[in-house]
Amino acid sequence: MSNEKGPDHSRRKERSRQAILTATRALVAEEAYEKVTVEAIAARAGVGKQTIYRRWPSKSAVVFAALLALSEDADGQSVALPDTGDLEADLKLVMRATAEEFADPAFDRLIRALNAEIANDAALAAEYREKLAQPLEEAKKARLRSAQEAGQLDADADLDLALEVLYAPLFRRWLHRSGPLTAAYADSLVDATLRAFGP
Amino acid sequence: MSNEKGPDHSRRKERSRQAILTATRALVAEEAYEKVTVEAIAARAGVGKQTIYRRWPSKSAVVFAALLALSEDADGQSVALPDTGDLEADLKLVMRATAEEFADPAFDRLIRALNAEIANDAALAAEYREKLAQPLEEAKKARLRSAQEAGQLDADADLDLALEVLYAPLFRRWLHRSGPLTAAYADSLVDATLRAFGP
DNA sequence: ACGAATCGATACGAACCGTTTCGTTTACTG
DNA sequence: CAGTAAACGAAACGGTTCGTATCGATTCGT
Predict the structure, then answer these.
(1) N or C: which end of chain B has fewer CB within 10 A?
(2) Which domain holds residue A100?
(3) Rounded-to-integer distance, Cα B132 and Cα B141, Å
(4) How confident is the model at residue B24 (pLDDT cuts 50, 70, 90)?
(5) Taking Cα atoms as reference points, which of A100, A198, A114, A108 lies closest to residue A157?
(6) Would you state the torsion angle of the CA atoms of residues B121, B125, B127, B131, taken in this order, to the nearest 10 degrees?
(7) Which of B120, B171, B196 sits opposite A33 (nearest CB)?
(8) Which CATH number is A9's domain given?
């Protein structure tokens, strides 16, 4: 094997790769998305534009990869929600934290950019679901299943549906800016979900 | 007054305006949104590009106006939901219809384009809420209020929240393509909402 | 020291945006 | 019917961005 291979230049590759992804995150977080151009990313990363196009086919793909790398940093330690046994308290904690996250301008711009790309690109949407959305949903579902087994949710409850009812209103309110994302709002979503799917 | 005014050229204006809006709708409905350019709209409408820029400041605004004109055609006859007295049946009818609407490819592309523009343009989002979303929401809320007065919903129920719980999951599932928009799914959203906000 | 992989930089064509310009058509007026 | 002014279609233009092509320099293993 060793005589089949040339020199290993993977360290260089990795360094420029990280520089590109870091620069992309910084740019998307700090300016309006329209101002994030491939050339700006290349300049910020101290990299030639072609080095970006050698790895990703489009700007969308770069932005997505930049976001994806974030969640893969926290690898191994698979996502898990708090489970104190008190479902209502646990969910309110999570929903309040999610609402606060959306209020952060940098995060806001990042996720808006991602959603805009996703809305018109089915392939990217599928990758988003598989690599970013699914793991989180599974973690939430695991928490609900635990509650269901403890008799805190109806035994026949559709947990996927419950998750949607819990989270989708928050997401929509954020995306359309149709109302404030307060802690009280987060709480009321938990309350409604528990009324709908409680025992 | 009459001697103060020159000739009235409003008929020409109106004709080209309609041609532009119609062409925009056709283009957005039939191709991917990236392929809809202002020049393509002008060509399809048989109109100079400048005639478009005389009226609207950007492509986003044109696309939005094209959509808005649709709902203003059905003017006067303000939106109203069926009210047979059977809340569950009425809501399931509406939610099933909404789910079907999203399944239409032309409508799908149109609304995706709108959402992509809205996601990164707060001003456009505000106009969207005011002119398109609000009237529909008010109609739905009126139906819920009628049910509330009939004792079919909890007297203290937050109707805005109930609407979000009812509709947001469908919207999110469509936007992220995270599942099929079946009649059974529409029904289960109504069921969940009624469990959460019923008496 | 040498060769191969990778790189940064730069020039380029194509597409699109939004502006400007210009000669023409349209609708009304006297 | 001739004159006027608003609105128009067409076309050219500068500016920006995308994605590609090219090339000499740098990095790494041998």
Answers:
(1) N
(2) 87-197
(3) 15
(4) very high
(5) A198
(6) 150
(7) B120
(8) 1.10.10.60
